Amino acid sequence: DAGITQSPRYKITETGRQVTLMCHQTWSHSYMFWYRQDLGHGLRLIYYSAAADITDKGEVPDGYVVSRSKTENFPLTLESATRSQTSVYFCASSEEREGWETQYFGPGTRLLVL
Amino acid sequence: QQQVKQSPQSLIVQKGGISIINCAYENTAFDYFPWYQQFPGKGPALLIAIRPDVSEKKEGRFTISFNKSAKQFSLHIMDSQPGDSATYFCAASSTLEYGNKLVFGAGTILRVKS
């Protein structure tokens, strides 16, 4: 049982390039989330999804786009990467009955924007 | 705007000692307070959580103390072990507000010296 996986684990890109981070979960959880983790800021919510085709903005959505055509996948796209988007990105999921309360996190993607 | 303030930023404790991490919040609508534990290179994982109807919750060596009037909650790790060395995040959410989003503190890096 793979649980929740993220790819790539590490990514180096240049300013202005489009980057897509992938997230896949095998639990059929309804809720999925994208966070970024930066020193001194903890985890900040970028986007979330309550179900396939339902997404909404979190605390720091600017510069990011998400989609959720299938329950198990929740890709995050940086349309035009900026240096300020250098961060560690975590995907998470949770069961509908638990709502947002118990979130299961992936291993993270470390992104460096040059 | 960070709604959950966590302290200290880092903490060094001797093996067998007590580790204490504190969090304070402003939003009185918060009604769920989890702690997440994150090991290097891994995603955060739920450690323990509390609701405001109780003042304390204990699971093994980990205890949450909750002070509703002071709007503070803390994590106590008894008999701290080197394996407890990790980053700890407090968080809060509200079932009354749209989306029941988790708001995370900035994190505390705990090192337990053997």
SSE blueprint:
The complex is a heterodimer of chains A (114) and B (114).
Chain A: E1 4-7, E2 10-13, E3 19-25, E4 31-38, E5 42-51, E6 54-57, E7 64-66, E8 76-78, E9 87-94, E10 104-105, E11 109-113
Parallel strand pairs in A: 2-11
Antiparallel strand pairs in A: 1-3, 3-8, 4-5, 4-9, 5-6, 7-8, 9-10, 9-11
Chain B: E1 4-7, E2 10-14, E3 19-25, E4 33-38, E5 45-50, E6 56-59, E7 62-67, E8 72-77, E9 86-92, E10 103-104, E11 108-113
Parallel strand pairs in B: 2-11
Antiparallel strand pairs in B: 1-3, 3-8, 4-5, 4-9, 6-7, 7-8, 9-10, 9-11
Helix content of chain A: under 10%
What are the secondary-structure elements of chain B, in order, as H or E?
EEEEEEEEEEE
Label the structural class of chain A. Answer: mainly beta
Overall morphology of chain A: globular
Helix/strand class of chain B: mainly beta
Low-confidence stretches of chain A: none
Average pLDDT score of chain B: 93
Secondary structure: number of strands of chain A:
11
Oligomeric composition of the shown chains: heterodimer
Tell me the number of helical segments of chain B per DSSP (H or I, 4 or more residues long): 0
Largest interface: A-B, 23 and 23 residues
Number of strands of chain B: 11
Helix-residue proportion of chain B: under 10%
Compressed to H and E, one letter per element, the order of chain A equals: EEEEEEEEEEE
Task: Tell me what you see in this structure.
The complex is a heterodimer of chains A (114) and B (114). By secondary structure, chain A is mainly β. Chain A has strands at residues 4-7, 10-13, 19-25, 31-38, 42-51, 54-57, 64-66, 76-78, 87-94, 104-105, 109-113. Chain A is globular and about 40 Å long. In chain A, 38% of the residues are buried. The mean pLDDT of chain A is 93. Helices cover 0% and strands 52% of the residues of chain B. In chain B, strands 2, 4, 5, 9, 10 and 11 form a six-stranded mixed sheet that branches. The model of chain B has no long low-confidence stretch (mean pLDDT 93). Chain A binds chain B through residues 4, 40-45, 48, 56, 58-59, 90, 92, 99-108, and chain B through 2, 6, 9, 32, 34, 41-46, 49, 89, 93, 95, 99-102, 104-107.
